[in-house]
Amino acid sequence: MFEASHVQYNIVTGYIQIVSNGHYLPAFWSHPELGGPFPGLVLLHDQWGLTPHIRSEARRFAQEGYYVIAPDLFDRQVATSPAQAQVLVQQASEAALLHVAAALHVLKTHHNCNGKVGLIGWGLGGHLALRTAAARDDLRALVIFYALASDIGPGALRCPLLAIFAGQDPASPAGAVDRLRQVLDESGMAHEVVVYPGVGGDFFDDSRASFDAEAAADAWRRALEFLNAHLDVSPKEADERGEFDPGTVY
Length: 250
Hints:
The chain is of the alpha/beta class. It has one domain (12-231): 3-Layer(aba) Sandwich (Rossmann fold). 34% of the residues lie in helices and 24% in strands. It has an eight-stranded mixed sheet, with helices on both faces. A hairpin with a 2-residue loop joins strand 1 (11-20) and strand 2. The radius of gyration is 17 Å and the shape is globular.
């Protein structure tokens, strides 16, 4: 989607493989064609898998000046029903956290990434992002969509967090969101919790029946502003090199 309000980068996209947990894991890769180094983003898909929607989001963030990698946590499988999604989530199990760590390593060691890295997750990906951020101290920003984690305490939050919820999502009831607000307030870390009343889960995904264009557009704006602020995106600085130098192929 073209954003007329500011300059966007021409991008390169494609599939790569990353080494994770002893085997090659597929991932979707998107980044500016020229310039750099850029901040990095790892995008973590929801229970449906690495769908066209997630690949579209990877391209959108790349156009804004990010090096983006979206690991395929389901290893080339995509769910078409809630029952199938549940099976894939169970199959991913704890190995998914290792895959997230591998994707972060790819970004942080890539010569055209400046080492400032953030995480974005939807649903399942949000849970994994929270758990990953609680175990590391090298992340600059975390954005989660409709993901709650009861085991995250005030001391576990180690980077700024933007949490986005749907008011009509049974997976994130108001009481649970309120408890998360309290935990975040006690953490002392920069955070923001946004709830869109009247919309259901998956409202950000334009391939789902619950998609809400107005809420999705506002959530995109908030997420982009949050990431730009905490990852110090500077288009002028990013353009100084003027050319793209390919790095290691994974």
